[in-house]
Amino acid sequence: MTSLSPQSPPPSLSRIRIGSAPDSWGVWFPDDPLQVPWQRFLDEVADSGYEWIELGPYGYLPTDPSVLAEETARRGLKVSAGTVFTGLHHGVDVWDRTWAHVSDIAALTQAMGASHLVVIPSFWRDDKTGEVLEPSSLTAEQWRNLTSLTERLGREVRERYGLRIVVHPHADTHIDTEENVIRFLDGTDSSLVSLCLDTGHYAYCGGDSVKLIETYGSRIGYLHLKQVDPAVLAEVRAEGTPFGPAVAKGVMCEPPSGVPALGPVLEAAQGLGVDLFAIVEQDMYPCAADVPLPIARRTRAFLRSCGA
Fold it and tell me: Is residue 6 part of a domain?
């Protein structure tokens, strides 16, 4: 009779700092009746075993740094990043409006001791209604606007607030597919612009996260951990469903039931030899208030089984 060898322990992912975000509690907007109150989010994210959080949409969590610092500290939480939305491909005419939006969030992010600002490009179709707002492809001039103004944003945010911008490829934006992500990376200064690789969005748009980490590892500054349901993804792709309604259909699913496999992604990221945040984001807007907590607990346990 052959004896069974003990199961190999998971790899040590000592360079990866795991966290979660309001997004995993169905929070997409600063104020929405379908969302849980911010106090409940903070209570439950701490209860799930996470130490790090993102700010989420500006205005959802308290914007007074002293209040937010007290509320997070007493729950044993720390902030990894703030998030901003930009439409820099529109050119210099939007710079002042963009900076007014960015500066408030960057100031709060800095005050909370975080060092990253996640930058999400504007959507070409509305994520709630699906209304087409502009063409899904950029002109050559718009690409130049996007890359040059993103570099400017990276420089200004670093010089004024000491933060590093990490640009988030996102479904229904102009930085989405492998082709567009690589074009963006090749067109921007690596000292000013890094990437927030969202594994779910990249898979949603046909990309391979492990390949991107192995090829452009020096540009990966931050991770969002997310999976897509392949069956639902095939359906929404076939039907041309906008991202918001696709989320409502369950295209983003609980790990480890979807793709990409997160273990190999985390191992590839660990292999870069740098400290990286890996923030869980399971898009679930809208969702019932009692849904997120059990999922968050199971997801945290799953990531521990991967060594994180």
Answer: no
